[in-house]
Design goal:
Two copies of one chain form a homodimer. By secondary structure, chain A is an alpha/beta fold. Chain A folds into three domains: 44 residues, 434 Repressor (Amino-terminal Domain); 145 residues, 3-Layer(aba) Sandwich (Rossmann fold); 131 residues, Response regulator (Rossmann fold, 3-Layer(aba) Sandwich). Chain A is 44% helix and 15% strand. Chain A is built from twelve helices and twelve strands. In chain A, the strands form three sheets. A six-stranded parallel sheet of chain A has the order 2-1-3-4-5-11, with helices on both faces. In chain A, strand 1, helix 5 and strand 2 form a beta-alpha-beta unit. In chain A, helix 1 packs across helix 2 and helix 8 runs parallel beside helix 9. The longest helix of chain A has 16 residues. Chain A binds a DNA duplex through helix 2 and helix 4.
Chain lengths: 349, 349
DNA sequence: CGTCGTGCAGAAAGCGCTTGCTAAATGGCT
DNA sequence: AGCCATTTAGCAAGCGCTTTCTGCACGACG
């Protein structure tokens, strides 16, 4: 039914070993023989059996990219960049690797299961993107898995995620704290004193770091941090919308709202607008990430640009062993404050 | 070095066969034995060797999802929905499948290569999303691959893509033509007579169908279709921005711009705004797809909503054999016109 | 009390490929 | 002409798992 290596060998009048070598190209084969084999492959429409090959060679060409939410452009952009470097098909010769993205949906269990599945497949490399869940047990479980993967020869790279010490993984970490701090400092510098903060889900490193940066800026300016001015939610538009309504309910004198990311900020804008408030005259709004659509908001969003594509590309290269690991296995990636129309001086009050 | 089935067997004092059966759970094993095996698995921290298993069983648990651009939420949303149904890890019991998304970047070669790679891996199912490239040679090559995949027992589903007859694949097709027509009819009904159209890349089914719908609406209204009012570009914001400038240069008396999708429409809005034109007072703008951010545009975007998540979920279920194929293997999915703030009556002129 | 059905476990034959080693040419030297 | 170094090809032993077939033991039944 299915054509095997042996069939090709028979047709080309050579041994299976030779066919294998022609296909893998890492062993001298006479030009004439090679051609004969290639012709047979073509005529028979032969397709290598991946599992068999992986089993025999004890390696596979699978590269896994784990993302928290594939429907979120934040991850889409990173995944796209990573994958472009992995080569996927169409990459540079020889390294024909299957880059696959796995959507964990932010669930710790799924993250672990995907890691196991990837381990099962003897993946060549794994890239984990985005914030991690801050549960000690889970973090330890993930660390253990990463260690095991590394031991098995799988290259592990973290992109936009805090380092996992002693796991043999390289990490490209976003400076969420610094970016968030710069953002809030900008607002404070403008004269804002009553700022609401819409945080992401609790127990996430990204959420915590951004919040810490925000608070650090407030503290530095001597502004008391009223816990009622912080609301937690998901990293999506809807959540920003609802959280804003809640913040307004708690204190309608807010002059600025800082959001966990751009999508959330967009939701905040919608809520403000519906509440009859102007941006930025009545309330300033700031996001984070600088996703493509942020510049199209009206007014365009003040935010912190994260070099998602660049970081992803670098992570991809490291995963392929095409770029050496950063010193100490850790590199931190800075965000850049983008001041745009959605933030301004607070109204006199 | 690595723990194998045999190691587990030795530890549990049973034969490898028994261990395999416990793990696969499709053969009676006494409870006490099972428990012993499970304990050994746990103690040894055993992880099944995927390739070996796939080789022996002649099947794998890989499901491939092909997308044109993973950084585009259009695909992200569909992929997410598909994957949620595949189960990925965490899906219903037994069906632990590795759903992976493959980014073709819109390149025909990569599409083909990914298909081959998936075939190599003996994938359980493959879902192709989004428009296809309209090159006869390539279409035939893809069809041939799909046929081969189907023969090998891989279930093939097309989602948001025109049917591929005689390939043994199921298709969920978006009614791009109908949606586009309704959209333009809406504009014409408002009184517009000079409409610009920003199309996607040529040679794509989606591009062509949407354009045809637009033209059909114009024709029905007796409006001459001036080719100078159509510009082709990519499916992204940038492209919309540039195309709009070009359209304006060609004819500054346009009263409406219909874009290939929402991202393009957003770019168009930016260009119009920078040109000092108001939306919709001076120029109406319409998009397509109704991605989440569209409602947040100011004014919010009139567009055609495509049930991306629903279609994806259905495609996923079909791919898993959990829902039967639509009659004839083809189902068409309708879009819904969403009239919002970005379209209005044209200025009197 | 012998026989048969049933439930559970093991032996062993692959699945299709890679690769270390060996063998056979080939050609260049002396 | 005889030898050795070089190429190039084949042999065969696995890689780790699944699965068919066989075998054993036990209780039930006539």
């Amino acid at each position: 039914m299915t054509v095997t290596l042996a069939d090709v060998a028979a047709r080309a009048q050579v041994s299976p070993a030779t066919v294998s070598r022609v296909l893998n190209g890492n062993y001298p084969v006479a030009a004439s023989t090679r051609e004969r084999v290639l012709r047979a492959v073509d005529e028979l429409d032969y397709v290598l059996n991946g599992p068999a090959s992986a089993l025999a060679a004890a390696t596979s060409d699978l590269v896994g990219i784990l993302v928290n939410d594939i429907a979120d452009p934040f991850f889409g952009i990173m995944a796209s960049a990573i994958q472009a470097e992995i080569g996927g098909p169409g990459g540079r010769a020889g390294g024909e690797r299957l880059a696959v993205v796995c959507n964990t949906g932010g669930s710790p269990e799924r993250e672990l299961t995907y890691l196991t599945l990837l381990q099962r497949q003897r993946a060549a490399a794994v890239v984990l993107t985005g914030g991690a869940v801050e549960d000690t047990a889970h973090a330890e479980a993930v660390a253990a898995k990463l260690r095991k993967l590394a031991q098995a020869g799988t290259r592990v790279v973290l992109c936009g995620r805090p380092p996992a010490p002693d796991t043999g993984s390289a990490a490209l970490t976003f400076e969420n704290r610094g970016g968030a701090r710069a953002l809030t400092e900008h607002l404070v510098g403008l004269g804002h004193r009553r700022l609401g903060y819409i945080a992401g889900p609790g127990e996430r490193t990204t959420t915590r770091h951004r919040l810490e940066g925000h608070r650090a800026a407030l503290a530095a300016a001597g502004i008391e941090d009223d816990p009622r001015r912080t609301v937690h939610g998901r990293y999506d538009r809807r959540s920003g919308y609802e959280a804003t309504l809640e913040l307004l309910r708690r204190d309608s004198s807010l002059t600025a709202i800082v959001a966990a990311n751009d999508s959330v900020a967009l939701g905040a804008c919608a809520a403000l607008r519906e509440s009859g408030l102007r941006i930025p005259e009545d309330v300033s709004v700031a996001g984070f990430d600088d996703l493509p659509f942020s510049i199209d908001a009206v007014p365009s969003l003040t935010t912190v640009r994260l070099p998602l594509a660049e970081a992803g590309a670098r992570a991809g290269r490291i995963a392929m062993g095409r770029e050496e690991q950063p010193p100490g296995g850790i590199a931190s990636v800075r965000g850049e404050l983008m001041v745009r129309g959605s933030t301004g001086v607070p109204r006199a009050s």
